[in-house]
Amino acid sequence: MGIIQSLRCRECRNEYDPKFRYICEECYGPLDVIYKFASDIKRDTFSLREKTYWRYFELLPIAHKGNIVNLNAGFTPLQHADILGRQLGGLKNLFIKNDSVNPTFSFKDRPAGVAVSRAKESKLKAVGCASTGNLASATAAHAAKAKLPCYIFAPTDIENIKIAQALSYGAEYVAVDGTYDDANRVAAVVGDSKGIGVVNINMRPYYVEGSKTLAYEVAEQLNWQVPDHLIIPVGSGAMLNAICKGFEELSDLGLIDSVTNLKITAAQPHGCAPVFNAFKNNSNEVIPVERPETIAKSLAIGDPGDGLYVLRRLKQYNGIAEEATNDEIIDGILALAKTEGIFTEPAGGVAIAVLQKMVEEGKIDRDEKVVCYITGNGLKATEALATVLPTLSVVKPDVQTVSAMIR
Ligand SMILES: *Cc1c(COP(=O)(O)O)cnc(C)c1O
Ligand SMILES: [Zn+2]
User: Fold this and answer.
1) Count of CB atoms within 10 A of residue 49's CB?
2) What is the mean pLDDT of residues 167-195?
3) CA distance 154 to 151
4) Which of 72, 129, 262, 390 would you label with 254, given CA atoms 20 to 30 Å apart?
């Protein structure tokens, strides 16, 4: 089991007991889980285990296996994207981490599953989340399996199907008339006062631990090679940070080589790109976007909680940030679907569109081992495509007519 040493402040490095806390009492910085890893962890430790992210349980913040709330998420395919790579101008080693095929159809099953498990271990009586769409279902599904009530705080303008999905798992849905940031503010106060484990707020140190398995799996699937370049969509920035933490932990454990040459690209949608804007202006200040406007609703976080840390990670890892417009996002979705047979939601379109720009601008070499994280499923956001897909012309069920249509 993962043996937690402490929760450590990311700013002042103060360490705390791993209790129900998430902010440093000295400086209000965020807290990260620090472990006492067992010394006998090897590559082989994991190879024969179940094909879910719980195969890495020694590296995750749950003390007793019985508290794991398991929907069998993770260990998703790492697809060699040879066709897309060729179309993009000859990338030979392009890989898609296809996290659209998780149980609730986004990567959020990773952080939500770990946070709900931790809530169960801490004997909390309810869980919840502030959501841009996908976290709602991921939290609600794991809460259902854990037999815990679940409270979703979300803006009203997210995709209908994401609301239907979360409601079906039995969650209580608080539809906030405002932005994600408004929903987040309400959730923070109500969560603390009612003792709700809000997975991405007061459970955040544990929540992000789930997302770091996106690094573990990629490393293992690449035969414990360190990739050269990662393309990661950014909303709050929690996932990008967690992926970096994951690679660093593997390197500290001696399971992979040094990660100092890793390069990272943060991908954001134009219309809600506060991290990209700061990067472009060479600024250390992330200025919130008041009114996000983008089809990539799962990335529509105007005031990203981990935005500053994404900027730091980009400095640390030779990184860059890039943005994509709605049209580019749609082109990205269709390019991935038509070449690799993977249907993603706009967040994935952002990653592909940014990848394409990087190749065009010569910022990615043909030989580089590139991993592009596809984090959500296209079935969850079909509205975005309504205007670009061909309209159907209906025909009579008559063989001659239909035959004449097909050349
Ligand atoms: C939430 C989400 C992201 C962004 O993750 P952050 O940790 O908020 O940066 C990316 N893609 C999808 C599909 C998401 O749901
Ligand atoms: Zn601190």
Assistant:
1) 12
2) 96
3) 10
4) 72
For the stretch 53-111, pLDDT in tens is 999 999 999 999 999 999 999 999 999 999 999 999 999 999 999 999 999 999 999 99
The structural domains of the chain, with segments of one domain joined by +, span 4-68+108-207, 78-105+211-385
Give this prediction's pTM: 0.97
Listed in sequence order, the residues at least 6 apart from 271 whose beta carbon sits closer than 8 Å to its beta carbon are: 289, 292, 293, 294, 325, 326
Q: Which two tokens stand for residue 267?
A: 């991908």
Which of 129, 207, 298 most suits a substitution to test ligand 1, by most atoms within 8 Å of the C-beta? Answer: 298
Q: Atom 1 in ligand 1: which residue has the minimum CA distance?
A: 298
235 lines ligand 1 (CB under 6 A): yes
Tens-digit pLDDT profile for residues 225-265: 999 999 999 999 999 999 999 999 999 999 999 999 999 99
Ligand 1 pocket, mutate which of 100, 108, 245, 303 (most atoms under 8 A from CB)? 108
CA 21–ligand 2 middle distance (angstroms): 13
- Of 11, 113, 104, 105, nearest to 61 by C-alpha is 113
- Is residue 78 in contact with ligand 1, taking CB distance under 6 Å? no
Q: How far is the CA of 28 from the centre of ligand 2 (A)?
A: 6
Let me know if the fold of 4-68+108-207 is the same as that of 78-105+211-385: yes
- Separation of 32 CA from ligand 2 center, angstroms? 11
CATH fold of the domain at 78-105+211-385: Rossmann fold (3.40.50)
Separation in Å, CA 397 to CA 172, 230, 392, 394, 402: 46, 49, 14, 9, 8
Atom index in ligand 1 nearest the CA of residue 345 equals 13
| Architecture category of domain 4-68+108-207 in CATH | 3-Layer(aba) Sandwich (3.40)
Residue nearest to atom 14 of ligand 1 (CA): 298
pLDDT band at residue 1 using 50, 70 and 90 as cut-offs:
low
The residue whose C-alpha atom lies closest to atom 2 belonging to ligand 1 is 298
> What are residue 174's phi and psi, to 5 degrees?
-95, 105
